[in-house]
Amino acid sequence: MQTPDGTGAAAAPLLPRVVRQRLHDTVVDHLRNFIVEGVLPPGMKLNERELCETLGISRTPLREALKVLAAEGLIEISPNRGASVSRMSEAEAWEAFELMSGLEAFAGELACERITPPELAEIKALHYAMLACRAQNDLPGYYARNQEIHDRIAGAARNQTLQQTYLTLNRRLKAMRFRSNHQTDKWDRAVHDHEEMIHALEARDGKRLAAILRQHLLEKRAALMQIHPDPIGGAPAMPNA
Predict the structure, then answer these.
(1) Is the model's pTM score more than 0.85?
(2) Segment 17-36, tens digit of pLDDT
(3) Using alpha carbons only, what angle is made at residue 188 by residues 183 and 193, rounded to the nearest 5 degrees?
(4) Contact 34, 224 (CB under 8 A)
(5) Where does the HTH gntR-type domain start and stop, copy by copy (predicted)?
């Protein structure tokens, strides 16, 4: 870009792009949370006008956000029917939790070898914050910190391919993981599991942490199937396991 005297000018300010990106990320985060917490349940057809009014935005950022969520598998977009929240069959959910249990177990083993003291301290701080949310019956707050702990363990594994696979699959399971803690006894059991995870991390006991994480995920699956025999709707009969 040239000034009138022909000299070079500084690059144009990037503020508009930053603001736009921030809005985009905020809309994506809000919609993702609506899906996780069941505000937008599986199979629900999305009304763009109502969502725009709720979020205080125009249709352009909403549609951009819906495309992101569609790429994550949380939203289905049909040229003729518009957008709706994705539904996962019972068999798909069963297999997804099975795979996630293996991914988290492997991440736990690697994390015990590679986690740094500051990372461990941050996970412990999240754990105590999670316990405070449990004491206040704050399920959304509890879940956010709970999920951050799992994400931090996956990150501490120092394996980008593993972490990306974990993040991609976990986006589709977050809503079900959130709902699996609605019963008090299941919630308390999950808290106990997290205490055991912290002990295993502190001891750098990879085999123990892997076993805890695997069982933790499989118990969440069992809890979900018990509470919601058809967790995401439209499910075929469950195969024998």
Answers:
(1) no
(2) 334 557 888 999 999 999 98
(3) 125
(4) no
(5) 21-88
